[in-house]
From TrEMBL:
Enzyme Commission designation: 2.7.13.3
Every Response regulatory domain range: 7-124
One Pfam entry name: Response_reg
Gene Ontology MF, one: phosphorelay sensor kinase activity
SUPFAM superfamilies assigned to the protein according to its UniProt record, in alphabetical order: CheY-like, Homodimeric domain of signal transducing histidine kinase
4-aspartylphosphate sites (modified residues): 57
UniProt organism field: Deferribacter autotrophicus
rRNA-binding as UniProt keyword: no
Superkingdom of origin: Bacteria
Catalysed transformations (reactions): ATP + protein L-histidine = ADP + protein N-phospho-L-histidine
Stated name of the protein: histidine kinase
Lineage, uppermost ranks: Bacteria, Pseudomonadati, Deferribacterota, Deferribacteres, Deferribacterales
Keywords, in A-Z order: Phosphoprotein
Keyword Phosphoprotein assigned: yes
Amino acid sequence: MTFRKKNIVAIDDEESVLINLEKKLNKFIECNFYGFKNSDEALNFIRENHVDLILLDLLMPEKSGFEVLSEIKDDENLKRIPVIILTVKADAEAIDEAFERGADDYILKSSYENELLARVKRILRTKEMEEELLNYERDKVALQLGGGIAHHFNQPLTVLTMGFEIIRTLLETQHPEALKTIDKYLKMCEDSAERISKIVDKLSSLKKYSIMKYVGDMHIFDLSLDNED
């Protein structure tokens, strides 16, 4: 796997907190640190860039950390980014609310020295493993879909190819009986073309799918037209 520096965004209205976070993280973790005092600027950056982790202060003057957290977790494109809450005190009610809104962890600002690096590393590693699994599943689905298309297209395409070859040969002979045979194979070609068209329609409107055993341990998408709901 190609190494990539992790992109970490911190949102806190106190400049000193951002400076302290950057120093500690850059000392022990290969990362690009982006600190923001303004939450809207931070959200714009997060939407436009690949971000691996967000450190979010709960108590901010213009927009609370709870609101920012909800915006992140309600956004389809951002909700998988892990968020660690930064809080001054262990307020059980506030921490519970943060978890309910989708926070992944929290750190007391007074515990930076002992907990910051360990928790950040754990969250980053978890996210990395999730991405690896997601990529594996995507590759697996792509392979199954490609195999399904190849399998289900193969038979009608073979019929089309064979039909055209036979028609070409018959046209060259100019035999009277050839017209009947040509009509027969044109119908076969027409049926095969219609079958391919239906498979394409099924693919374009696919909302759920099933897989079928193919060769050995390999499975492919079942695009059979005889098992439609």
